[in-house]
Amino acid sequence: MRVVAWSSFIAVIGLISSIVAVLVGSGLETTEVPVHWDALTHPNTDVIPISVGIILFSFCAHTILPGIEGNMSRPEFFPRMLNVTFTCATVVKVFFGVFCVLAFGRGVEQSVTDNIVNFPVVAILAHACVMINVFFSLPLVFLILGEHIDLFFMQRVDVRWLNPTRSCGAYRIWILASRGALLSLGIFLAVQVPHFAIIMGLVGSLTGSLLCFIFPCLFSLKLFWKEISWCGRFARILILIFGVVGGVIGIIYSAAECASVFSQ
Questions:
Q1: Which one of 24, 26, 162, 225 is most buried, counting C-beta atoms within 10 A?
Q2: Which residues cross the membrane (predicted)?
Q3: Are 103 and 207 found together in one domain?
């Protein structure tokens, strides 16, 4: 776990460095062109549902949160960690999005580093930092996914060889095969998807709405209906309706954009 912790720390450093590099590059680009204030005052409403889906997708960390809590040395700090993490992520994303829109206007690419054309050194540095973040983020994700896969198969096959406490060659082969298959699948999907932002918007409109709005409110109302005040019930019902309506609109717009792009 110490190796995973240090790997995650390096990934965070890479993420922060990439954000700083993009902000510096965007700031340098604004010296070449005027600030695009009109992009904020007159936004393109057709892409707002897709953008909301992308934002929701970026907040969907629910699948690995139980594993993170279970592997923490001090699980009692898990709620505080969530509050700090999501607050910082929200502030950074808002500032980052507004800054890049002011710098590049409606010409922002799916990968904002592609907009830094006049300063290639900064663009290369930003890409390198993104690669560091992605590479060193894999151990934590693979640890959680690997545990779920091992548990799934241990319930269906002979557990005498599929056991991490046994030092046997079969278990090592299983680790290499299962984790290698996960990595290969991820690389294959990344290569096959040419318009990543649109796909993120489509997936985020579905899974993001379910995980962030619909399921939490639905389960809360189902489990704690008698304990929740009428104000709490009303608020949860409003959030539930917002999640359903927003998810449906996002799916429709994202699917239409996907059909338009892939038909060209």
A1: 26
A2: 7-28, 48-68, 80-104, 124-146, 170-191, 197-225, 237-256
A3: no
Positive or negative: CA dihedral 86, 91, 95, 98: positive
Closest CA to 142 of 94, 188, 180, 90: 180
Cα end-to-end distance, the chain, whole Å:
47
Question: 105: alpha, beta or left, given left = phi > 0 and alpha = psi -120 to 50?
Answer: left
Question: At which of 96, 123, 140 does a domain end?
Answer: 140
C-alpha to C-alpha distance for 77 and 83, rounded to whole angstroms:
10
Residue-wise DSSP of 130-188: HHHHHHHHHHHHHHHHHHHHHHHHHTTS-TTTS-TTS--HHHHHHHHHHHHHHHHHHHH
Confidence of residue 167 (pLDDT cuts 50, 70, 90): low
Query: pTM of this prediction?
Result: 0.69
Say if residue 130's pLDDT is above 60.
Answer: yes
Structural domain of 49? 1-140
